[in-house]
Design brief:
Blueprint: E1 18-21, H1 25-29, H2 48-56, H3 60-72, H4 83-115, E2 118-123, E3 126-131, E4 140-144, E5 152-158, E6 164-168, H5 170-173, E7 179-182, H6 185-188, H7 194-199, E8 203-206, E9 218-222, E10 225-229, E11 234-235, E12 240-242, E13 246-253, H8 259-262, H9 273-306, H10 323-337, H11 345-363, E14 377-378, E15 390-395, E16 402-413, E17 416-418, E18 421-422, E19 428-429, H12 455-462, H13 466-477, E20 482-487, E21 490-494, H14 498-509, E22 512-518, E23 521-526, E24 529-539, E25 547-553, E26 559-565, H15 567-571, H16 579-593, E27 598-606, H17 609-623, H18 629-640, E28 645-656, H19 660-669, E29 673-677, H20 682-691, E30 701-705, H21 710-724, E31 754-758, H22 760-766, H23 772-781, E32 784-787, H24 792-805, E33 809-814, H25 820-825, E34 828-832, H26 839-842, E35 846-848, H27 853-891, H28 904-914, H29 916-925, H30 931-936, H31 942-945, H32 952-977, H33 991-1013, H34 1019-1039, H35 1042-1047, H36 1057-1061, H37 1065-1092, H38 1096-1106, H39 1138-1143
Parallel strand pairs: 15-29, 15-33, 29-32, 30-31, 31-32, 33-34, 34-35
Antiparallel strand pairs: 1-8, 2-3, 2-4, 4-13, 5-11, 5-13, 6-7, 6-12, 8-9, 9-10, 14-35, 16-17, 16-28, 18-19, 20-21, 22-23, 23-24, 24-25, 25-26, 26-27, 27-28
Helix pairs in contact: 2-4, 3-4, 3-10, 4-28, 9-10, 11-27, 11-29, 13-14, 17-18, 19-27, 21-23, 27-29, 27-32, 27-33, 29-34, 32-33, 32-37, 33-37
Length: about 1200
Amino acid sequence: MSFFGLDCVKKKERELERKLRANDREYNLSFKYATNAIKTSKYNPFTFLPLNLFEQFQRIANAYFMFLLVLQVIPQISSLSWFTTVVPLVLVLTVTAAKDATDDINRHRSDNQVNNRKVQVLIDRKLRSEKWMDVQVGDIIKLENNQFVTADLLLLSSSEPLNLVYIETAELDGETNLKVRQALTVTGDLGEDIEKLADFDGEVRCEPPNNRLDRFRGTLTYAGQKYSLDNEKILLRGCTLRNTEWCFGLVLFGGPETKLMQNCGKSTFKRTSIDRLMNVLVLCIFGFLAFMCTILAIGNCFWELNEGSQFMVFLPRQDGNDAAFSAFLTFWSYVIILNTVVPISLYVSVEIIRLGNSFYIDWDRRMYYSRNDTPAEARTTTLNEELGQIKYVFSDKTGTLTQNIMTFNKCSINGKSYGDVYDYTGQRLEITQHTERVDFSFNPLADPRFIFHDHALVEAVKLENPEVHAFFRLLALCHTVMAEEKKEGELFYQAQSPDEGALVTAARNFGFVFRSRTPDSVSIVEMGQQRSYELLAILDFNNVRKRMSVIVRSPEGKLSLFCKGADTIIYERLHLSCSKLMDVTTEHLNEFAGEGLRTLVLAYKDLDEEYFNQWKQRHHEASTLLDDRESKLDELYEEIEKDLLLLGASAIEDKLQDGVPQTIEQLSKADIKIWVLTGDKQETAENIGYSCNLLREEMNGVFIISGNSPEDVRQELRNAQTSMKPGEDSVFFPESTLGKGVKVMADEAVNGEYGLVINGHSLAYALESSMELEFLRTACMCKSVICCRVTPLQKAQVVELVKKYKRVVTLAIGDGANDVSMIKAAHIGVGISGQEGMQAVLSSDYSFAQFRFLQRLLLVHGRWSYLRMCKFLRYFFYKNFTFTFVHFWFAFFCGFSAQTVYDEWFITLYNLVYTALPVLGMSLFDQDVNDVWSFQHPQLYVPGQLNLYFSKKAFFKCALHSCYSSLVLFFIPYAAMHDTVRGDGKDVADYQSFALLTQTCLLFAVTIQLVLEMSYWTAVNTFFVLGSLAMYFAVTFTMYSDGMFLTLPSAFPFIGTARNSLNQPNIWLTIVLTSILCVLPVVTYRFLFIQLCPTINDKVMFKVRQAKATLPPPPRRTRIRRTSSRRSGYAFSHAQGYGDLVTSGHYLQRPALYRSSGLTHTGRTTTGFSPMGRSAGYSPTGRPQNPKVPDVEGTSLQMYRTIKEPSL
């Protein structure tokens, strides 16, 4: 999407309908439609400075420091030089402006690159090469193979048969498989005849610009006829033309009005809980600052009234300046002096720490997936510490917990189950890598990567069992797969879902090879014979129908309807004669469910010719309606899909990703609750839950919520609560008691572990406002929750519900477009770059390739980031409060005159130079234990969930500690220097010497405190700490030298102070004494705390010290195996719309170069045969999944397993 820009431009007036005329720029310009130029940049050379500064000063911190700067230039108020604020403020503004400028320059380059691309435009009856930005609505343009689509176009004609074009939509939805579009016949006849195209004056009326990628509605009026336009005739900006020599298109939407640009809406800005806490604390600090300044202003007023008159001779007052006015000025003076309680460097340091911790995630080799060359990526730098506080993880199932690589595993045909292997005693054997595989050498078109172990099925195929043949014939005909055959026998299937690819590949291996298709026919090879079926209709899949059907005419003229879909849907439409077969098939489905397989039920019926012709006519009329087209078609589909005859069921395995059970186990030990939100059926999701340790046999109970009415759901939820807390009455929070404020629901302790499974229609009731609290209370009492058959909207609603009523941090993880809403709703969104495109990744905050990397992201990077940020904030506030409070105590000894206790240069450099690098070193490199120990003890993660490391309580402890340290740092040097002389008898108790001593004591005290905070020392940390102290002394001796004073006397008044003071032993003794007194309470408190009530961190760090010489052994895990009779679930990962494509010719490929006349039974051919289709491991990427299978002998018919049911 980076090629096409990101920002959207809003129209001034809302457009209700778009009208345009081809080849008529004058007419189209009257509507003032947007041109095709895009602008994603924010600034130009003239607006950069004012706009950028305006944006930066919208941040409260920057505006606050600008306000201080204004105060500092008022002579009556300021006791500090202006540069103490200007230097850090300018530094921060400059760094931010440089970053913004760099980003905007890159946006300008991207805009220019896109806007200056060339495309051929039909102007004045000639094709001219024009820049993209000069293309206008109503222009006709020519695209060639591998070119990006310039704007949203109406396809007019193409070089392919039937005016087809093939496009890749990776920039729009992340999918790399080719899609097909087809022009209207009336415009397709224009071809590439420039004269005809120049004379084309069709008028288009269509919907206004919008962001719906899957829908388009409009009409084309041409030569007195009106034609309906839909999404299948539109080429969207962002697509790439593939396998098509050329095509012509009419520009409908340009630039910011294209659907791509309309879809670039900004995501919600996410802030961490620490950010929100910081905002509250900063407001508290501002209040405390005002309180301190008020006290000091009142003190000044009293001092002026009582003592000030005695200084009138020495310091005469200006006319009209009474004590009250002096107090007013003093208030603002102390606002300036004490402003370091909120230092500007805090915000800069926080961003640097977050950036550094983001790089650690990007650089982590243990989160790199070499198979796909996919590293982990921190797509945001503002949420790292939030990763250390996750309490709830919301996960998709397919492609997230599972691989989304489908393998044809088992099937049930006419009451017989195939797929298991038995020994000679009839005992079922476990299938391993060494189990004998079926030999498909009789079929030269078989996929060598397809693996199947039950020889009985291939024997049934060879014996021409009619039901088995009908089963695989249905799989070969009822689909929307595209076949590509570049060489003879080298078949490559382009399927819109891995399920379809696995089923068609299975049929291919068992002798029913889908070879090619045209808009009105499907060619398959049945057991060596080429047969062409006339394709009369496709009754397409959608999420409501949950099934698809095809109507075909066999070469013998027989009309048949083939249907596949969800078991519950198909069973409702079966003929009564199938009842016994349905019972047996249901038993097999239950067996398949124990392994969490995805199932489809297959059925068919023969059609009467006369009835079908009548139905076909009504179908044509309904399909041409402009209004209510979908509902009319659904009625017709329902009518014909009745009295079906059951053939059997297929079972596809969606394998778990590596390490999923172990990851879930680790996260569970870290007290992270995992909720799976999936579109799969309840039984499938439930069994996957058991296989990945989400649900366990040793749980006290697993509650199934499947009520069909609000009352049933409410009762089931209450029953579950009663089971978990039998001694207590259920307490509910009706909506009326909540009022306007949102009530936070506290966690409830339960005896034992429980699981909750709720299906989609029950969840819809549970999410209603009257019941949502009951559902949330029940779910939060459970260890794990599985929500089945949920829509993308429901996924987001569940996340929002937990966010609303639980004071916790949530994380959502998914891999598909249906997970985007959930990922955006959660505090943190994680995208898995898998088989379902890149939409989830593009919307996420973090991304990686495997679910198992989540435990490292949270338990290592997240915990370290949170720990480092909390240590940083605690220490930062400590050192700045201590620094500032010394000013407060000094005020009582300087007549509240707003005189500073330190040298002005020390005030300027304290946060920028002297203490900046040590605290950054700690915040970037510190770790309490290494990653191995973090995995060994997941409980280390719990303090982050409870906000134990940094909270309001921790902040006030830090403030009290600072108050104590400031008292020591002021009064010990004050007492030590009172009436003191040097060794040579000269006076040392002057203001400048006291300032130097106090600031030196302060620097040593905060440095030692940092050393105590640090758990992990590196060479960099050591260099930063020692280097900062060395820098302090080097700068101090330089600035207090004679040369600097002579250069600029007013800026460097502390001439000779350093060398006169720091050569005295009593000065160094004072430094040592203050440092010891500052850290003594801290050391004492920590010693007693560790001895009396150690935390989990203390215990683990003690173990680390004990086992320092050797690494801990890796944890031993037992693989939990489970068999179950729970019912499998239908999970047909299909998309709507492909049926119409097929029947209208959209899937027609060029005729294959080679076609074999049949199949032989003499073994596999070897000359140049390199099949590319995927088997029981079908993937849209076409990567090989399984090694080539060695040839094995076929088995005898004695291996058949039959069900003795006389009625079948």
